[in-house]
Design a protein that fits this description.
Elements (H helix, E strand, L loop, with lengths): L1 H15 L1 H30 L4 E3 L1 H26 L5 H22 L6 E3 L10
Antiparallel strand pairs: 1-2
Helix pairs in contact: 1-4, 2-3, 2-4, 3-4
């Protein structure tokens, strides 16, 4: 019974703090998108040389950040337009997205390099 009460209290706090939590999430997401833009610039510049290619891990991270960015836009719009009937689900959505943004931010700090050497075979080696 106590656990159920704590759950209800937690959900109530998320609803009451929804605007603050949404603003905080937006700030974190802006920083994450900025990091993504910086890393994409580095990768794109290095790929132009023709000797480097981006790691698949980095490409997946770029895609995940773009997905979260799109989902945030939809969530924010839904909250602002009052399309989400259950306000506690809005708070839960913001909390889940916040955790995802934190995780992606942490991942970006621990890449073991962004690029790989891209050696392509151009035929038989000369003797």
């Amino acid at each position: 019974m106590e656990a159920l009460g704590n759950l209800a209290l937690d959900r109530g706090r998320r609803y009451v703090n929804l605007d603050d939590n949404l603003r905080s999430l937006e700030t974190k997401l802006r920083r994450l998108v900025g990091r993504k833009t910086d890393l994409e610039s580095q990768v794109t510049d290095a790929e132009r040389s023709g000797t480097k290619k981006r790691k698949r891990e980095v490409e997946i991270w770029f895609e995940e950040v773009a997905t979260v960015e799109n989902e945030f836009g939809a969530l924010k719009k839904s909250i602002q337009e009052g399309l989400i009937e259950n306000a506690t689900s809005s708070g839960d959505g913001v909390a889940k997205m916040d955790a995802t943004v934190e995780e992606l931010t942490e991942q970006s700090k621990h890449f073991d390099g962004l690029l790989l050497e891209a050696f392509e075979s151009r035929g038989e080696p000369r003797m």
